[in-house]
What we know:
The complex is a heterodimer.
Chain A: E1 4-7, E2 10-13, E3 19-25, E4 32-38, E5 44-51, E6 57-58, E7 67-73, E8 76-81, E9 90-96, E10 106-107, E11 111-115
Parallel strand pairs in A: 2-11
Antiparallel strand pairs in A: 1-3, 3-8, 4-5, 4-9, 5-6, 7-8, 9-10, 9-11
Chain B: E1 9-13, E2 18-23, E3 31-38, E4 45-50, E5 53-56, E6 61-64, E7 70-75, E8 84-92, E9 105-110
Amino acid sequence: GAVVSQHPSWVICKSGTSVKIECRSLDFQATTMFWYRQFPKQSLMLMATSNEGSKATYEQGVEKDKFLINHASLTLSTLTVTSAHPEDSSFYICSVLPGRNSYEQYFGPGTRLTVT
Amino acid sequence: LAKTTQPISMDSYEGQEVNITCSHNNIATNDYITWYQQFPSQGPRFIIQGYKTKVTNEVASLFIPADRKSSTLSLPRVSLSDTAVYYCLVGPMNRDDKIIFGKGTRLHILP
Lengths: 116, 111
């Protein structure tokens, strides 16, 4: 399966600052990547669909100006949490879609964000 | 997207076979059934996918009855390392369809 990496694996930042999370598809050119958020003991929540060379599609309730997504190449998508607040503390996970089947996604290891 | 219902949690012992059942009464004709596994602080991992009858791979088996209103993930001879959350997802195979995760089943394997 596709190999997906995320960087950093964890980050601590202060309220009001911005944090960038990278998602890389190491062995596959991904035109589509997905960003999820997961709070403790809860399921994954889809935040947005990242499309290479075009604007991301955000899910209802996700602020596009707060969660900036850039998919500038076929192997890299970035999620920037702007003006972070403690309630943004969460586990952020990206995934790639290697094939024609939307249900066989390959997920990155996740990034733990803590905002103090 | 078809709604799925799974047990919130299950306990089992090492060496046992574990069966996790997922109900999806409103499954559509073109929907497939997919199971993911997630360990703490890791991204989910694809386990198995099927449409009908039985599917088996090196990790698990998936049993789907003729009416497809439920499915059962079977994990043979579990070990402590199988402790994880297991998600059942139901939906079409189209590339543009997004995945919506349900609550999943928290499986705890005891020694």
